[in-house]
Amino acid sequence: MTKILTFNLASLLIQEAQEEYDQSIQNKKVKTKYDYKINRNIAIGILKGELPRLLSGTEPMNSVFDEMKAVLIKHRLPVIPNRTFNRKHKVRKRKFEIYYGRVS
After folding, report:
1. Secondary structure (DSSP) of the chain
2. Tell me, what's the pLDDT at 104?
3. What is the rounded distance in angstroms from the CA atom of residue 49 to the CA atom of residue 59?
4. What's the rounded Cα separation, in Å, for the pair 57 and 42?
5. Which of 4, 55, 68, 88 is at 20 to 30 A from 10, Cα to Cα?
6. Per-residue pLDDT tens digits for 22-55
7. Within a domain: residue 89?
8. In sequence order, what are the beta bridge partners of 71?
9. What domain range includes position 46?
10. HSE toward the beta carbon, residue 97, CA cutoff 13 A
11. How many structural domains are present in the chain?
């Protein structure tokens, strides 16, 4: 249940931060090499940390939400078109070796 709430709030937060960022770029009429999008992993991490403060009711939700949006606008990723190289998948070692012997 908490994961669903977190991911739904993260989606709303990302969408609003992206719209705000796009408007600021259009208002400034800045030409950038790439289009940028908000980093989803950073958004989820920030939201996990701020979720208790958001739901506790000690501060207005809108102010906490606006603070998180301001932080997220700083964490952007370039959307690079026509990427042709394959991604390298790391093979991770197991934390514990699997022991198939008899335990006595």
Report:
1. -HHHHHHHHHHHHHHHHHHHHHHHHHHHT---SSEEEE-HHHHHHHHHHHHHHHHH-SS-HHHHHHHHHHHHHHSEEEE-SS--SPPPPPPPPPSS----S---
2. 61
3. 15
4. 24
5. 88
6. 999 889 888 888 999 999 999 999 998 988 888 8
7. no
8. none
9. 2-79
10. 3
11. 1
